[in-house]
Amino acid sequence: MEQKSTIVRLDNRGLSPPEPMMRILGALENLAADGMLIAQMDREPIFLFAELHDRGYRYTCDPDGSGGYLLEVTHQ
Question: Whole-model pTM?
Answer without folding.
Answer: 0.90
